[in-house]
Amino acid sequence: MALSVAGIEAVEEYSRHLKERHDLSALTLRNYISDLRLFAAWCERSWSEGRDEAHDFDPGAVTTPTLTEYRSHLRTVLGLKPATINRHLVSLKRYLGWATERGLVTRDPARAVKLVPSVPKAPRHLDYREEAALVAVVTRYGTPRDRALLVTALHTGLRAEELCGLKREHVVINKRSGILRVWGKRGKYREVPLNSTVREVLTEYMEECLPVGSPWLFPSKKGVVDGDGGRTLVPITPRALGYIVARYAKLAGVENLSPHDLRHRFGYRMAQVVPLHRLAQIMGHDSLDTTTIYVKGTQSDLQQAVKEIAWA
């Protein structure tokens, strides 16, 4: 969009300020300036509509309704996504905050403007075929530790941090039952029941493959060099877990899989067979509102449901 001389000068003045006073990446700086330039041009066009004379951009003329109208323009006319709209709004909030400090604006009009709420995406639902392919790949090509990791994640729904922090002593396995003692968010303790599948996998792994003397259930292969030149076993990190899941997912032909998706898989399957309040207890949720995400049907579930009432 074309911009008046006054608009160009306003943008350039702010650009100089950012370059001189802030250590910003080239991309961030470019976004701030382009967002302001787009807004200034929109203001000039909007303010000049129905008038004989053009109205140059002036930060002092920007009001809260101006910003809310622009927010609507970004959404309805330009069709931008919430995250992109919010980036524009944050850029303008930063600019108008600076303009207020400089005395270019009497009162910051952006203070009352809210960002666009983002609708959370439904969790990725790993289907039965993908789960089978993932387990087959890690069984064939993976280490016993990695197989135990993925099976435990799929059958307990632990968060990545909880899974990585498990110790040998946290596993209690009896003949017909078992639990994991888990300390979750904010140190909240819960006991997660173990089914026969994960009990069998963990028993075999702990008896035959877990390094002797390791306090951690899933130790890192690297370890940490100690003062005697040896290596002290440390747990794998959530980041390393992400790499492990991604590696086997790629081999299995499963796209965009993360450790949290394995948690979602467990939650989704359990939501089909247990009451919501029990699932919340197993998942370590403080609120049932968080747990309800697992009872929302996938597109394939809905398609199957409407088939049931078809006439033919």
Short description:
The chain has 312 residues and is mainly α. The chain is 54% helix and 6% strand.
Structure commentary:
- This protein has 312 residues and is mainly alpha-helical.
- Helices cover 54% and strands 6% of the residues.
- It has two domains: 5-101, DNA polymerase, domain 1, CATH 1.10.150; 128-298, Intergrase catalytic core (hpI Integrase, Chain A).
- It has helices spanning 5-21, 26-48, 64-76, 82-101, 128-141, 144-156, 160-164, 196-208, 238-252, 259-271, 276-283, 288-291, 299-307; strands at residues 171-173, 178-183, 189-193, 224-225, 231-232.
- The strands form two sheets. Strands 1-2-3 form a three-stranded antiparallel beta sheet. It has a two-stranded antiparallel sheet with strand order 4-5.
- The protein is elongated and about 85 Å long.
- The protein starts with a helix and ends in a 5-residue tail after the last helix.
- The model has no long low-confidence stretch (mean pLDDT 89).
List the helices and strands and how they pair.
Elements: H1 5-21, H2 26-48, H3 64-76, H4 82-101, H5 128-141, H6 144-156, H7 160-164, E1 171-173, E2 178-183, E3 189-193, H8 196-208, E4 224-225, E5 231-232, H9 238-252, H10 259-271, H11 276-283, H12 288-291, H13 299-307
Antiparallel strand pairs: 1-2, 2-3, 4-5
CATH superfamily of the largest domain: Intergrase catalytic core
CATH class of the largest domain: Mainly Alpha
Largest sheet entry: 3 strands, antiparallel
Q: Report the CATH architecture of the largest domain.
A: Orthogonal Bundle
Q: Please provide the count of β strands.
A: 5
Average pLDDT works out at 89
Poorly predicted tracts of residues: none
Anisotropy-based shape: elongated
What is the spatial order of strands in the main beta sheet?
A: 1-2-3
